[in-house]
Structure formats: structure tokens, C-alpha cells
Write a structure and sequence with these properties.
The protein is of the alpha/beta class. Helix 3 (71-79) packs parallel to helix 4 (104-132) and helix 4 packs parallel to helix 5 (154-174). It has helices spanning 21-32, 44-56, 71-79, 104-132, 154-174, 199-212, 221-232, and strands at 12-16, 36-41, 60-65, 86-89, 136-141, 179-184, 189-190, 219-220, 243-244. 46% of the residues are buried. It has one domain (2-194, 222-244): NAD(P)-binding Rossmann-like Domain (Rossmann fold, 3-Layer(aba) Sandwich), CATH 3.40.50.720. Helix content is 43%, strand content 15%. The model has no long low-confidence stretch (mean pLDDT 94). The strands form two sheets. Strands 3-2-1-4-5-6-9 form a seven-stranded parallel sheet, with helices on both faces.
């Protein structure tokens, strides 16, 4: 059956940033596809909410309260998995400042979470998959910011561009072992991270972003989660080193 390629029964997935937004939506969808999901985040309350959603729907979830910038915490959590088939490195933070107003501490903080946190997750996952000798899929979270020079997003965009380079490099290094590495670069998605304004200002921002998209709307976390699921499962068995863009058509690079 064609849908068998989307079945993750018997597999284990690890999702960072699982306490909300795209991370939560991805964790829930991977569980619906049959995976046992390890949910990781520094937001303990949101983390347990995600695990409850999965368990109430009949899925399997385990939580790891950790900070992705702490390599040791991440390593211990990954090593606790009985096996590892999927790593979805989704944890990230947003920061906005002009180039001239960007401070060292702003850049360091964003790079620590949005790049180093992804790097650590990729390293630990790849090591575990290589030890298991059964291949696997690593999914990183880039951003539509890598295709633009949007004002105010220097730190965020630079970190996400580094994630793209990490994705392509790692894909080349581990592909011969049956490990696939791909990135997702969403457009504007309605999540807690993008809801940074008062309700009226937020509505105006979303209206502007919707007008920029050929599909005429902003994205939902579930739109991105379906892309994560595709990259995690056998439906994308011949896909690696790619950047998939669920962005409503805002960016259409070659």
C-alpha cells in the first residue's frame, strides 16, 4: 500500500523544541504515524502537555527536560533511547535587531540555540545511527529567512543559513551509511514564537504576510509538521541534502 511508506511503527523519533509550535505539531504527527517519540525542550510544562496529547491519542511519548545548548544533556537524552531512527532538530528562538544595533550577546545567544543546538542534535543523532547500523533520518529546521535579507533578522537568518550548510555537509558525510539529512525552511508560520505583538499588531502582521504569499494565507504549525513527517519516513527514501520550503510560495528559489 502506498501509505505504508509513511508508517513509522516500530521506529523511534527524537524531537527538540517539542513543547510547542512546530516542534509540538511534529512530535504529535510522528506519533500518529506510529513512532515512539522522545520529546525534548527546556519548557517543562509545555513538554508535558505535548506528551499528554500524544498519550491521550494512544501514542508513546517520553519527555526530556533539557537545554539544547548543553551538549552533555542532549547526549545523555539521546543515549537513553533504545534506538534512534529519526532526529527532528526543531528547537529555536527568535531575535530581531538591525545590523547596526546587533550586540555580541544577541548574536551569541541566537547562534547557541539556533545553530549550535542543531549541530549538537545532529552530531549525537548521527553517532547513534552509525552505531545502530540501520540508517535513519535527520531533519533540521532552517527558515525562509535563508532566502531573503529581511531587515532585523541578521542573527536569526545567519544561524539558519548555517543550519543549511550543516545539513548539506552532514548529508554528504553520512549518506553512504543510509542516513539521510534534510532541512525544512518554512515561511511565516503562526506559532507562539511568531506571536510577539499585541493582538491588533499581530493581526496586521499576519495580514501583510498573507498578502505576500501566492496561497494567500500564513502557515500553521501542522503545515510544517507534514513536511517533517515526509522527510522522516520511507516516502523520502531517495531524498537527502535538500531544503524543503513549506512557505506558501513566498520564496521560489531555483
Amino acid at each position: 500500500m502506498p501509505l505504508k511508506a509513511y508508517d513509522l511503527t516500530g521506529r523511534t523519533a527524537f524531537v527538540t523544541g517539542a513543547a510547542g509550535g512546530i516542534g509540538r505539531a511534529s512530535a504529535v504527527l510522528l506519533a500518529e504515524a506510529g513512532a515512539a517519540v522522545h520529546c525534548a525542550d527546556r519548557d517543562e510544562h509545555g513538554l508535558h502537555e505535548t506528551a499528554t496529547l500524544i498519550k491521550d491519542a494512544g501514542g508513546t511519548a517520553r519527555t526530556h527536560h533539557l537545554d539544547v545548548t548543553d551538549r552533555t544533556q542532549l547526549r545523555q537524552a539521546v543515549e537513553s533511547c533504545e534506538r534512534l531512527d529519526v532526529m527532528a532538530a526543531i528547537a529555536g528562538i527568535m531575535h530581531s535587531s538591525s545590523v547596526l544595533e546587533t550586540l555580541d550577546e544577541d548574536l551569541d545567544r541566537v547562534l547557541a540555540v539556533n545553530f549550535k543546538g542543531v549541530l549538537y542534535a545532529c552530531q549525537e543523532a548521527a553517532r547513534r545511527m552509525l552505531d545502530g547500523k540501520h540508517g535513519g533520518s535527520i531533519v533540521t529546521m532552517a527558515s525562509g529567512a535563508v532566502d531573503t535579507g529581511r531587515p532585523g533578522l541578521l542573527c536569526y537568518g545567519a544561524a539558519k543559513a548555517a543550519v543549511v550548510q550543516l545539513t548539506k555537509t552532514l548529508a554528504n558525510e553520512v549518506g553512504r551509511h543510509g542516513i539521510r539529512v534534510n532541512a525544512v525552511a518554512p515561511g511565516f508560520i503562526r506559532t507562539p514564537m511568531t506571536e510577539r505583538h499585541e493582538a491588533e499588531e499581530q493581526a496586521q502582521t499576519e495580514a501583510v504576510m498573507a498578502r505576500m504569499a501566492p496561497l494567500g494565507r500564513v502557515g500553521e504549525a501542522e503545515d510544517v509538521a507534514h513536511t517533517v513527517l515526509y522527510l522522516a519516513c520511507d516516502a523520502s527514501a531517495f531524498t537527502t541534502g535538500q531544503i524543503l520550503r513549506p512557505n506558501g510560495g513566498v520564496a521560489m528559489p531555483w
